[in-house]
């Protein structure tokens, strides 16, 4: 019998119950017991949903209060000293402090949060483990075992999920003296041994061990470490399934197949070429789990196409075949059934987490009992869906294809080189040394959200909604003027999301009401879905930006989202390459850039927060992506005159190794998130002479902590050692929509003071 299993389920809840409960706990509105009860209810609901769908083994351990990597850090007792209480085990408050930082008034004296970065090539973020040479591990967090007991008590057949030891170490960052992270492996493995022994004592048969780094270009010592680690873990009393995803195993296929474990999971969505090669490499005793339902999109699976592969595998493997999604469904919205406002055709093309578990179960059932009515009905429906999508006139627009075909190389180049443009821009803008600005958004208050909701529900008419948003814009401009910022923004009160706002105004996108996915912690996003060719029917931002500029004599930035980020933070099409979709978006946004310039806007920021996120996991594939990603940005930005200054922004990510491509984007100014890394991200500038202007973030907006002006000044001094002072801008790490006004004002006041201090120090040097 083929087994249907799942690698992980979204934890946030269909109504974002987890987000709401955690934030209520932070505010003191509910107790820890209340919060834990919400967690128990969500887990019970999600396990039952999967069981009802037909999943044989439900995952346990995929739930996290903030992020699963952080959960593992606490499990191993890896709590930085600034958060630790001597002799005591970590608490839920410890976990949240590590994630968010601690304000000055608390016992920990203003401890900064752990660094955050992207989980492989997704828009999910994790808290980076802090590794020191003298680190000692201890089993310190009972969450996994408690949840296993919960699931067993509810009658579920469970498969606990843990991040593997090699992947967890790989994701960590060395702090203090340099050392080889692998030196910690021997000390870490006994903790895994304890975990497996505890799970076995609870009655667990199978454990899923996630080792996605097997899909990366691994150094030889890490490959050797895999063999050493799993040889040592071999004797532990549970069956072990190694799960890989997001990439093909390629040169690591033999290594993965040969590890002394009981099963291997492969992502056949990202890397279908792994099959059937794996069949010849897998020992005869091992389970093979095939990830055939896409865990990272929202499209229905082509069941018949997938079933052809599975039937072949089933003939070879028999009962050793498991069927699964490609990866955890963490990256998928929860339940399509709630989407009552989508038109019937569009909805028929989609599948969320609940539906994807049903697809997995159907595929397993099609192998075990192919003639049953449920299987036949599902296959018939799948055929209908695939035919509908292939032939729908809503998808293909000849005018878009014609415009793309007419694009020339000149369309992706500014008229003059940066050295000539910047002279004109500096003369026109007349800004001081270390000019201050923000990334774009200001606090999204309850009043703003209430007005937007009332407008969407038809309770507030267009005119009154416009007045409400204009009042918010006026307020944001006034505050910035009072703080003494040099380049202002309109605050983005009218925008629900930096992608969705634009997507709603572009043809070729569809939207959901409940399609939320977790980005980090309580930050949830609702990606729009690209289903067809993209066009911009009319201007999207010009009216709001022009209104804001009318409120001030200072320079005001127009704010847009770039094509790569629009693509990466949407659910893309499956029938068209990412490159082609990015180029369609570039042309649409290019029209907006030109319209903003025509409206008198002197600076236009085109955010490419997700630029590095799009990198393939294998280095050999990087250049092809970087070529089209940079070209798409330039295509967006290059329709303006030399004197119009183009900014871009990039979110948390290691970009030192792609700095030449970032330079090739040729933005006049780039702002980047660097504060949590204490400017470490600027190391690239010691060997690479970045030609254009740059604004390294001087404070972390993801934490409620307000750093003082001297702390920001010190970060600027670090930056000034690597970058010429005339190239430096001063800004927060990212947008301020998630922060409150009091902390925002205080932090920006300190930021302006830091910039003024640096002007004094460097006035004579320039």
Descriptive terms for the model:
single chain, 766 residues, alpha/beta, TIM Barrel, 2 domains, eight-stranded parallel β-sheet, six-stranded parallel β-sheet, 26 helices, 41% helix, globular
Describe the fold and architecture.
With 766 residues, this protein is of the alpha/beta class. The protein folds into two domains: 43-77 and 140-333 and 342-391, TIM Barrel, CATH 3.20.20.210; 416-443 and 484-493 and 541-762, Alpha-Beta Barrel (TIM Barrel), CATH 3.20.20.210. Helix content is 41%, strand content 12%. It contains 26 helices and 22 strands. The strands form six sheets. It has an eight-stranded parallel β-sheet with strand order 1-12-11-10-9-8-6-2. α22 runs parallel beside α23 (622-637). The longest helix is centred in the first third of the chain and has 22 residues, at 32-53. It is globular, with a radius of gyration of 26 Å. The termini are far apart. The mean pLDDT is 94.
The low-pLDDT segments are none
**Helical coverage, percent range:** 40-55%
End-to-end Cα distance, whole Å, is: 75 Å
Number of domains: 2
Task: Work out the number of β strands.
Answer: 22
Output the radius of gyration: 26 Å
Structural class: alpha/beta
Strands ordered across the widest β-sheet: 1-12-11-10-9-8-6-2
The CATH architecture name of the largest domain reads: Alpha-Beta Barrel
- Our count of helices gives 26
